[in-house]
Specification:
By secondary structure, this protein is of the alpha+beta class. It is 32% helix and 27% strand. Helix 1 (13-25) runs antiparallel to helix 2 (32-72), helix 2 packs antiparallel against helix 3 and helix 7 (251-263) crosses helix 8.
Length: 413
Amino acid sequence: MLLKKTAWFWKSGLAAISFMLIVSVSGCSDTPQEETAVVETISEVQLSGQKDEEETEKMIECCLELYEKAAEENKIDDLETIRSIVNCLGENGYPAVDSRNQINMTEPEKVVEFCEKVDAQEEAEITIIEVSYLGGFVKYDLKTKDGNVDVVRSYYKYENGNMKREVTGSYQTEYWNYTEDGYLMFSGVWFSEELYVLTLSGAEEHTALRVQTLDETYRELSRKYLLPIGFEQNNMFIVDWSEDDFGDLNFYDMYELLYPKVNGTYTPYVADDNLGVGAVYRILKDDFESVIMAYFNIDSETLQSKTIYYAEDETYEYKPRGFEEVEYPEYPYSEVVGFTENSDGTLTLTANVVFPYAGDSKVYAHEVVVRPLENGSVQYVSNRIIPSEDNYRETWHTPRLTAEEWEEIYGGE
């Protein structure tokens, strides 16, 4: 259960100063001691703001040259560019990580110490930088007291040789957890003047930062075999299946997902512009099978038994997902945490499913067997969900309509 707390606005330094001045004036006392206290408080606020600006300038200075070089080479979103920026920030003493959690966090012990102080309800503060693949970074300024965590979130974007602060917002976390798997996960609704002008509301944010280091080999395996499949509009990693029994694996979803990887372009078989009409296509046997068989060791007869196939003209029926089959665009991702090289040349990957939206770094664990091929491609051999009482339901997934459901909705058209 998520512990709900009231979100709050982080007041500006000017507002805080004004408030303290009003209180001091209305206090009915003109003693020199109180005047001195007000002056000292103002000075402290000014010094704090000045120090924050200086720290931000240091952050920008240490990575600006790297951004300039990356922009010249058109490598702003390159993994090695992001790695160099994360490491540069780390060398200057800042905890930093990339937004996809593909690079080990720098200065992780500082974050762990902060989390321990949150648990102990002590006072502490820390700045964590999350480097984006879009050319910029998010700076999280965290403060804790009495077990509550307040966040000031500032986004800086690189553009035309400069790093500009785009937006700053603040909130008190509604959910905070440093998980057993080494993730810092927190969420809340943040507010900013810029955002409020546009939406008249705050923005919900779910942050997941891997703090604990992870073997680079595991990361490479994730990037090569699991992340290209993912969880969007397919059930490949949420059901049990194997080459001996493909079970409930949906090959229509796999066709739509794999088509661009095989053909270099998106599938032309799209939903009808009229949402009330269900589009139906007949795809030539060779065209359909070439996509599926590029990634699965499956014969025509088995594939035809798992789909709708018309032998008279050798075509597969295909119905693209419609309005009733859309999904909420918040997905988990698989992260390899171990692997085994098998005697038959296959690899068994053990992975945790990380779901930032749910604040869960282990929705469940699964084993994926892959067969690397000599040409550098891969065949997927099986998927098995590792049983556990803690396994979380796959709330992000919407199955395709059954034949009966499709007929009920579109049959009259």
